[in-house]
């Protein structure tokens, strides 16, 4: 199985999360292609696609929904999952998850994901709210969901 993990990032923390998810999938025998959306990856040819993006100024970084819109026909035919990073998830409360889901509806309003990952983000070294255990277990559970 070959999976595309396509991310967009301003400062790199989403790329690192995409890399972590990729490592977990690879450890389960899945072939992974990581790609920055800037490089305009093409989702055909993959058995599943995972998109990752941060929330910036109240919005999901625009390249992610733009990619989904552009490739909707292809993406709809195979398993699709998405994840988002947000500073607001420094506190992982149901209220904050709900807010993130509303922001993510720019993507989930277009296509129904097999899984949605909501993770804390990183502003700088002193304010890094990424929870690597949560990220790893989400990726672990993803393996079955995208088969
Ligand atoms: C300019 C700026 C604006 C941000 N706006 C928000 C926001 O509105 N809501 C939120 O939850 N996080 C916000 N964040 C936090 C980012 O989601 C977090 O830093 C994320 O990890 C950035 O991802 P990146 O390193 O891949 O660019 C903001 C960060 C920056 C730098």
TrEMBL record:
It holds the Pfam family Flavodoxin_5. InterPro entries: Flavodoxin/NO_synth, Flavodoxin_dom, Flavoprotein-like_sf, Protoporphyrinogen_IX_DH. One of its GO terms (molecular function) is menaquinone-dependent protoporphyrinogen oxidase activity. It comes from the Bacteria. PROSITE patterns: FLAVODOXIN_LIKE. Coiled coil: none annotated. This is Flavodoxin-like domain-containing protein. It comes from candidate division WOR-3 bacterium. The lineage of its organism: Bacteria, Bacteria division WOR-3.
